[in-house]
Write a structure and sequence with these properties.
With 320 residues, the chain is of the alpha+beta class. It has one domain. The protein is 37% helix and 21% strand. It has eight helices and ten strands. Strands 1-2-3-7-6-5-4-8 form an eight-stranded antiparallel sheet, with helices on both faces. It has a two-stranded antiparallel sheet with strand order 9-10. Strand 4 and strand 5 form a beta hairpin. It is elongated and about 90 Å long. The relative contact order is 0.13.
C-alpha cells in the first residue's frame, strides 16, 4: 500500500511539473506571436482541444504517393522550412570541419540515417527539413512483426530489445509520454543526435546542427505522430501518445527533474522486466516434449502383427 501511495505521489508531482512547463512554453509562444498573456483558463481550454486533435487520425498529405506509411507520421513542415527526401550529402555540414577528425563509426551512422536504410524485411524513411542552410534530418524505421511474434526469431528480438548505445545518453524531452534521448557525440562532430524507440520495433533518429537550440526543435516534435508510431508496434508502450504535452528536460527545475528522472528510471526497469518475461513466455512454446520412440520389433524369425484401435493406440502382437 505504501508503495502504491508513493507511486501516486510521484506521478502527481511529475504531472503537475509537466503541465506547468507546458503552460510556460505555450505562454512564451503566445507572447512571441504578439498575443496577449495566456491565462490559465484559456490554456486548459486549449489543452482539451489539443487532446482531442491528438486522438484523431491524421490525413495523408496531398501530393505524390508516398512509398511507406511511415511518411504520414513524420512531423509536418514548420513554417519557413522546406521538406524533401534526405540524401547522404545532407550530413556534410554535420561532420567535423576537418574530415580527418571524423569518428568513422559516427560518420557511418550519419550516412545510414540520411540514406534511410531499412532493416531486413522492414521499412524506413528519411526526410530533410531545410531553412537558410540549416538541415534537420528525421529517420523512422520499423522492423517486421514476425520478429516479435515468432519464437523462431527470439535471437533477433532479444538483440533489438537489449541493444545499447555506443554513446553516453542523456534525457532530452518527453513528447506525449515518449522519452527522447540525446547522444553525446564525439567533440569534433557538428551535430546533435536524438534517438528513441517504441517496443524495440519502431525507431526514431533525428540529426540537427550542433548549435541549434532546444526551443528551435520544438516545432518538429510538436507534430510528430507519437500515437500513430506507438500503434505500429506489436508491443506498444503503455500510455505513450495519450497526452499532448511536450516537456524539455533542460527547462525543468531541480524538483521536477528529480521526479522525472525517478519516473523515467522506474519505467525503464518495468519495460526491461516486461520484455524479458514476454521473451521467456515465447521461448517456452519451443519446449515441446518429444514423441516416444517406436517399439522395436524383435529380430530373428519373429514377425509383428500391428493394429491401431479406435482410440489411436498402436498394439503389436509378435508371432513365430
Amino acid at each position: 500500500m505504501l508503495r502504491v501511495l508513493s507511486f501516486l505521489f510521484m506521478l502527481a508531482i511529475v504531472s503537475s511539473s509537466i503541465l506547468a512547463l507546458d503552460y510556460s512554453m505555450q505562454r512564451k509562444q503566445a507572447l512571441a506571436a504578439g498575443q496577449s498573456s495566456l491565462s490559465v483558463q484559456v490554456y486548459f481550454a486549449d489543452l482539451g482541444k489539443r487532446v482531442s486533435a491528438a486522438t484523431k487520425p491524421r490525413k495523408k498529405p496531398e501530393g505524390p504517393a508516398v512509398a511507406t506509411d511511415l511518411a504520414i507520421l513524420l512531423p509536418r513542415t514548420p513554417e519557413g522550412w522546406t521538406q524533401r527526401p534526405a540524401v547522404v550529402e545532407d550530413i556534410d555540414s554535420l561532420l567535423a570541419k576537418n574530415r580527418r577528425d571524423n569518428d568513422r563509426e559516427t560518420e557511418r551512422l550519419f550516412e545510414d540515417i540520411a540514406k534511410g536504410s531499412a532493416p531486413d524485411d522492414g521499412k524506413a524513411i528519411a526526410v530533410t527539413y531545410e531553412r537558410d542552410g540549416q538541415r534537420v534530418i528525421f529517420k523512422l524505421a520499423r522492423h517486421p512483426d514476425d520478429i516479435f511474434t515468432s519464437a523462431q526469431a527470439l535471437d533477433r528480438r532479444a538483440a533489438l530489445e537489449t541493444a545499447g548505445s555506443p554513446y553516453v545518453r542523456k534525457a532530452f524531452m518527453r513528447v506525449r509520454g515518449w522519452d527522447i534521448s540525446e547522444e553525446n557525440l564525439p567533440e569534433a562532430m557538428r551535430a546533435r543526435l536524438f534517438t528513441a524507440d517504441l517496443g524495440a520495433q519502431v525507431r526514431l533518429w533525428v540529426l540537427a546542427p550542433e548549435r541549434m537550440p532546444d526551443q528551435d526543435l520544438l516545432p518538429f516534435f510538436e507534430t510528430l505522430d507519437v500515437a500513430g508510431l506507438n500503434a505500429m508496434a506489436v508491443n506498444r508502450e503503455p500510455g505513450v501518445g495519450a497526452v499532448p504535452v511536450l516537456v524539455l528536460v533542460s527547462e525543468m527545475d531541480e524538483t521536477a527533474r528529480a521526479a522525472y528522472d525517478a519516473d523515467r528510471s522506474a519505467q525503464a526497469a518495468e519495460r526491461k522486466t516486461r520484455r524479458a518475461e514476454a521473451r521467456a513466455a515465447l521461448a517456452a512454446t519451443l519446449e515441446q516434449p518429444e514423441d516416444p520412440p517406436e517399439p522395436e520389433i524383435p529380430s530373428g524369425e519373429l514377425t509383428a502383427d500391428c493394429r491401431t484401435d479406435k482410440n489411436g493406440t498402436k498394439r503389436c502382437k509378435a508371432d513365430q
